[in-house]
Amino acid sequence: MEIKNQDLKKMKSNNLWHTGIVVLLLPLLFLASCKKNDIPEKFNKASQTLFQYISSNKNLGLYQAALKRAGMYTAETFSNGGPFTVFAPVDSAFMNAGLTLDSINRYDPQTLASVLKYTIVYGKISSSSLIGFYAQDVSSLNATNKPNLTKNYYGIFLNGIPLVTGASTDLNDGVLHELTRVPFPPTDNLFTLISKNKNLFAPTDDAFKKFGYPDIASIQNSNPAILQSLVYNCILDGGSRFFTSGFRGGYDIRSQFLYIDIDGFTIISTGNELPTHIIGPDMLATNGILHVVDQVIAVAIIY
Length: 303
Description:
The chain contains eleven helices and twelve strands. The protein has helices at residues 2-33, 50-56, 61-69, 91-96, 101-105, 109-117, 190-196, 205-210, 216-220, 224-233, 244-247, and strands at 84-89, 120-122, 134-137, 148-152, 155-158, 161-171, 174-179, 251-254, 258-260, 266-269, 276-285, 288-293. The protein has a seven-stranded mixed beta sheet. Strand 5 and strand 6 form a beta hairpin.
């Protein structure tokens, strides 16, 4: 009996010893099996800041140049008072707006700063943070003017301007969306905006000529009631600003007689044989929005 007890004591002692060895070796085995590349990347480096991302993005060279010209190319611009959502126009957006590197460097810094501040919106705004449909003016670093933010089935839009596909990035201190056009804050009302553009009356000059008005004199001699009807067809009034992003999916103006098709740019009306197209979208004024179209919109009421 005594021998058996001694054997049992030895067996328990050996088992405890082996258990201790195993417990001590497990951390060593774990460390040996983990290589540098096996450690999750999120533990290796922190997400970039807005300023770091903008500074390293090859598609934002002209945006960087504009920030420098405006005295805003600092980390503090994107950190003080944040978090921010930045809608940064890509290089092609600047070029299409006539803003080359040379013209940017000749731009009035204060005016340029007001344009850039208009694209820096308070809060972190992404497709996941906006639930359902959304259309609202939002606050930006431009204290005078608020840009319009829209989210629908087709994505996120700033003043009706779509984002570059797949170019939205969540960052450590905010969100950056790359923008396909440059959004300018409004400076003129609708009347002044139309008056400044010598080639349009909402419908272009060519559109009026095709409709039977070859010159200004022919318009002045026309029946005022007819002209009022044509102008009425070109105005949407409802207390809201209508960007082309709000037309996407189709928009009913006057039931089956006048409506905007699913693409948001094609206008169908009973008084025109062919569809009308918006060729100059989203021209923002202080009291509304101007969309340039390629023909005079006519409506024939069918009973």
